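Q: Got a minute? One more chain.
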Amino acid sequence: MEAKIFRFLKIVGVGYKARAEAEGRLLYLKLGYSHLKTHCAGTPTMFTSDFLVKPRFSKNGVSKTQSAGNQRHKSSLVGTSETTCATTYPKSFCEWLAGIIDGDGSIQVNKQGYTSLEITMGLEDLRLLRYIQHMLCGSIKMRAGAKVYRYRLHNQLGMIKLMNCINGHIRNSARLLQLHNVCQVLDIPVILPITLDAQSNWFAGFFDADGTIVITMKDRLPQLSIQVTNKLLQDVESYKVVFGGNVYFDSSKNGCYQWSVQSRKDVIVMLDYFKSSTFRSHKSRRFFLIEEYYSLYDLKAFKPDSIHHKAWLAFLDKWNKLMI
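A: Always. Here it is, folded:
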């Protein structure tokens, strides 16, 4: 019984001296806590016979309690952190997540000194965001007036675990500066980005954020291209170094740099990488259709007079259903 009282008072933030006094025991008995349960990355959640009380940890580490019955949720709330989350993260996930954050994420420190992570993606990638939520906790909401979802993580313990996960894998110019600012607040030494190779899952994450696979017609011949686009040259050059291809400047959309592979040899190299890595975006499903594309291309099924033209049209229908 004594051990339970000490454990309870420690969770709600009562000092050691108070735990040994009669008032502490009285508080325990008055509230009638019967058992403890752990939710979301080891956060203790306390239950009574009538309601649930969940500790909320403030910036300085002092715990607060909040009744679940008092929590309000907007209708646009898709998911919250009330799920069981992973406590350790494999290297492949950390590399992939860093790529996602480099492309579509933001890690910030607000004016009050609180840190947060936000990732915004299209409606078709809700499943991807739910996977991140499963691993990190956090919440997902649809942005008002926009056809996008925003994932957000802002509790201190979760942010510390996140920084230890992606530290050394973030390399986007803007995101690296944000990483420095957040790590400074959380008192975590910054690790500069490691050298990438063909086994790094960072490429998969960055593609899920900023990549695309397209088929265009050139001189009446179909041309399949795998592309990754970003505002800064240095943020796409790694693809050229590891996978070949070329980098072009695109003057549209206020100017950006685009890495692209078009030759069959280079596309197959990327396809082999796809088979050995984990992509999770909606658009990445087009990788599964690349081999069928080349089979039909070799049959010249794209020509209207080909006996295989109906198969080509059926293929294009499948391809276009995976809209980007």
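A: The chain has twelve helices and 13 strands.
Q: Perfect, thanks.
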